[in-house]
User: Which sequence fits this backbone?
């Protein structure tokens, strides 16, 4: 039974004090300041006057920026969908693997997840650039084919600095985020239900869509959420792999703070991104509540 | 075609389609990293053709004072922020596990915030905070000049430690604490001799998690770092923007090996990797 705080006031205060003060001073206060700035405007070069204006938010939904929000949401959704399509069979295979294989497969998925994000993005640059491994491989094949038929000079493919590279990079980075929650949901399934479905004559695909997916829905929802949120706020991937037309919200926010020096507008943009994140979490929480029998 | 036995209905792993899919995913995940590591040993600047084994880029790396300084900064920041996160995270977990108090739900929610808030938002919040409210003095001697980055790292690490420690405390038998008190141990003694030993494995796991989170972080550091406080990821970022070079490959390889060793240690200490998979996902940043 939990103790009332009044029974041991000294211990309670000593343990609560440091984390509470830290959280308030070095996390909540900075966010509160950004929130306050989002209702302000630049007053001179360095001063920001907090005037209670909604102008920054109005600017954030102007067509130019609204397009970037929609594009970011679309890119994040596409990334999430691809991760689900690629990751679901992987999670299924891990679930039904033997204990020993399970350990290794989980390690296989988790190891890149622990590797530095910047390094993984850099590794992709080396693969995709015009002198990268993919293009050099194609060139070699091209030259080999040219021996038999004149094909002309090899033109390297433009694989980097476009939307394709951004999506590929986001899927590459976020795949483990999807596989791990899917696996923990599938692992809790009652396997005899699947056997029953197969015994009663349903095929594997039918069993998958009529039995496995409905039962694993909460896990699928949390996998989608865990992938969608960081993909929506991704900064590094579009920055390094994207071209001029692949800017996402985070890149716009960074520009306001580091280059354009329009902090109030950048603050408003970050809070729109935060609200979008909270909405996504709320939707997932509502969905999880609706299907309580499938949990646990 | 001879088969020893047909795969059972649920032995998906024994079907060739599934094996092909897994192999493709593994290649997708690992080929870029393996290529990156392999070409750090290639004796050629431009070419991706193998020209022979060399360690010269590692030699260059260990003579590059700017890169070494950034690496040292990263390790220092990670070490200090791990110690602070461990203390704050364990204290928070203890309070939430042990006490009933008004505002508990609010504290619980506030502690989850640093885990869910997008990195970029936290990054700009730190930028604004250290630019306007609490300017970190310039030109302090090392390692005090790293203070701002350390504070930012603790802010996003300690809630993760709290999650891990709290999960561990759920398995604590509260009667043990009562027994200790019945036998005359004071509050402090009970915590030190009864609660802390139970907490210990989660403290190790939390420490490794905090260390890796700090070592890996780029976005928040990028917004907090001043011109004279460069960390390893920030340094690699500026090199990557410039071009793809074997030096960056070598530097990345060092960091990959370090992370893999730390992860292996964490998994070994925690035992079953399957048990960590669940919270690995929950901890996703």
Assistant:
């Amino acid at each position: 039974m939990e103790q009332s705080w009044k029974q041991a006031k000294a211990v309670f205060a000593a343990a609560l004090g440091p984390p509470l003060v830290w959280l308030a001073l070095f996390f909540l206060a900075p966010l509160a300041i950004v929130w306050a700035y989002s209702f302000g405007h630049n007053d001179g070069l360095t001063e920001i006057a907090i005037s209670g204006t909604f102008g920054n938010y109005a600017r954030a939904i102007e067509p130019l920026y609204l397009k970037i929000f929609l594009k970011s949401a679309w890119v994040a959704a596409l990334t999430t969908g691809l991760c689900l399509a690629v990751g679901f069979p992987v999670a299924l295979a891990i679930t039904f693997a033997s204990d020993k294989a399970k350990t290794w497969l989980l390690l296989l998925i988790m190891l890149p997840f622990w590797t530095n994000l910047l390094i993984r993005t850099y590794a992709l640059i080396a693969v995709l650039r015009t002198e990268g491994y993919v293009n050099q491989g194609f060139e070699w094949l091209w030259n080999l084919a040219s021996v038999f038929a004149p094909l002309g000079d090899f033109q390297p493919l433009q694989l980097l600095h476009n939307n394709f590279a951004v999506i590929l990079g986001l899927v590459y980075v976020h795949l483990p985020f999807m596989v791990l929650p899917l696996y923990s949901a599938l692992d809790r399934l009652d396997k005899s239900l699947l056997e029953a479905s197969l015994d009663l004559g349903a095929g594997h695909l039918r069993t998958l869509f009529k039995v496995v997916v409905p039962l694993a829905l909460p896990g699928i929802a949390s996998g989608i959420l865990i992938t969608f949120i960081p993909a929506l706020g991704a900064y590094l991937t579009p920055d390094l792999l994207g071209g001029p037309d692949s800017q996402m919200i985070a890149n716009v926010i960074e520009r306001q703070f580091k280059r354009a020096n329009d902090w109030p507008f950048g603050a408003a943009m970050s809070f729109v991104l935060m609200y979008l994140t909270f909405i996504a979490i709320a939707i997932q929480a509502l969905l999880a509540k609706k299907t309580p029998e499938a949990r646990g | 075609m001879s088969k020893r036995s047909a795969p059972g209905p649920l032995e998906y792993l024994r079907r060739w389609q599934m094996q092909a899919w897994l192999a493709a995913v593994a290649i997708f995940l690992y080929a870029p990293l393996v290529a990156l590591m392999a070409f750090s040993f290639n004796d050629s600047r431009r070419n991706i053709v193998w020209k022979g084994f060399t360690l010269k880029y590692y030699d260059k790396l260990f003579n590059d004072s700017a890169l070494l300084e950034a690496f040292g900064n990263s390790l220092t920041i990670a070490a200090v922020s791990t110690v602070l996160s461990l203390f704050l995270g364990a204290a928070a977990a203890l309070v939430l596990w042990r006490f009933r108090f008004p505002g508990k739900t609010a504290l619980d929610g506030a502690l989850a915030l640093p885990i869910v808030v997008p990195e970029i938002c936290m990054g700009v919040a730190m930028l604004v905070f250290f630019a306007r409210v609490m300017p970190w003095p310039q030109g302090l001697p090392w390692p005090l000049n790293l203070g701002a980055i350390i504070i930012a790292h603790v802010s996003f690490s300690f809630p993760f430690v709290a999650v891990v420690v709290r999960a561990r405390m759920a398995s604590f038998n509260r009667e043990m604490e009562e027994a200790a008190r019945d036998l005359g141990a004071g509050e402090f003694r009970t915590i030190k001799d009864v609660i802390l030993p139970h907490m210990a494995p989660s403290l190790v796991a939390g420490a490794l998690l905090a260390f890796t989170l700090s070592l890996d972080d780029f976005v928040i550091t990028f917004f907090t770092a001043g011109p004279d406080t460069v960390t390893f990821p920030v340094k690699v970022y500026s090199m990557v923007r410039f071009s793809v070079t074997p030096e960056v490959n070598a530097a990345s390889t060092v960091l990959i090996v370090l992370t893999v060793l730390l992860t292996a240690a964490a998994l070994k200490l925690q035992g079953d990797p399957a048990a960590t998979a669940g919270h690995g996902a929950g901890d996703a940043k």
About this structure: Chain A touches chain B through 99 residues (CB under 8 Å).
